[in-house]
Design a protein that fits this description.
Layout lengths: L2 H16 L2 E2 H8 L3 H14 L2 E4 L2 E4 L8 H6 L2 H13 L6 E4 L3 H9 L7 E4 L2 H7 L6 E4 L3 E2 L6 E2 L1 H7 L4 E7 L2 E2 L4 E4 L2 H12 L1 E7 L11 E5 L5 E4 L5 H10 L2 E4 L11
Parallel strand pairs: 4-5, 4-9, 5-6, 9-12, 12-14, 14-15
Antiparallel strand pairs: 1-3, 2-3, 7-8, 10-11, 11-13
Length: 263
């Protein structure tokens, strides 16, 4: 990742943490000119990662997710580490659900060296990746295809999911609140994820650190409904307490020496 890309990711993280990122404060923090920060903000706004306001910018609201292109570029090394760690916990010849999300697309790539997987997905990007391995059986759910990210949602999608009972459901999420609520932006996508949870023997949640304490308006369920959380950084203390109390395994992809930590 180039220095410019690193700075822009940091700007988004600051906007997420503080609610608003001012041009002057950002220029001082990164040791660049206000003009440079304005160019960064303009580029991030064009990607849909930020919304411009007088004197700075903030994240998009809780009713609107970042664009697919912006999500693809954010935290990609972290997502890849999470994906590799999660893939290590999936045996050969397993049956899986994999739903919508850029992290899940990295999970699909990390699974390509496995053998004999049967995968049901409502993500055309995941299906396209997995079909590179001829030893896999890939089943694509029907329904409405969202042009923005090639995810599939709707009643037909849910009906297809309910026809299966799989070993592991791999799900992504847009936000995890401090009380353990799993949150997303699209009600239709949430209903598909709920069907995946209900029809999986185990549920693995893949979420990078930017999802902690983020806002989104549609409630999918609670963190207690998953069996394991795969992430790249320790969750906030309150959330970690909830994970421990519920017996949810915590796997952190960037522990020292590449090891994982389990709660």
């Amino acid at each position: 990742m180039s220095p410019i890309e690193q700075r822009r990711v940091a700007i988004i993280e600051l906007a997420q943490q503080e609610g608003f990122a001012s041009i002057e404060a950002l220029a001082q923090r990164f040791g660049v000119t206000p003009q440079t920060i304005r160019r960064d903000i303009n580029a991030l706004c064009e990607q849909g990662a930020l919304k411009r306001f007088h004197g700075g910018a903030s994240l998009s609201s809780s009713v609107e997710n970042l664009t697919y292109q912006a999500r693809q570029s954010l935290h990609m090394p972290e997502k890849q580490r999470i994906a590799r760690l999660l893939a290590d916990h999936i045996p050969d010849d397993a049956s899986l659900f994999i739903n919508i999300g850029t992290t899940n697309e990295e999970v699909a790539r990390a699974l390509l060296q496995h053998k004999g997987l049967s995968v049901v997905t409502n993500n055309l990007n995941v299906a396209n990746i997995l079909t590179e391995n001829p030893d896999f059986q890939v089943i694509v759910a029907g329904g409405l295809v969202r042009a923005r990210d090639r995810g599939i949602v709707g009643e037909a999608t849910i009906d297809l999911i309910r026809q299966f009972r799989v070993d592991i459901g791999v799900i992504g999420i847009s936000a995890i609140d401090t009380d353990g609520s799993l949150l997303d932006y699209d009600y239709r996508e949430v209903r598909v994820a709920q069907a995946i949870i209900a029809n999986s023997r185990q549920v693995y949640l893949a979420a990078d650190r930017s999802k902690f304490e983020r806002g989104a308006m549609v409630r999918l369920g609670t963190i207690e409904q998953v069996d394991a959380l795969f992430t790249d950084s320790p969750p906030p203390p309150r959330l970690r307490e909830i994970l421990q109390a519920a017996g949810v395994k915590l796997h952190i992809a960037n522990e020292p020496a590449g090891e994982e930590a389990a709660a």
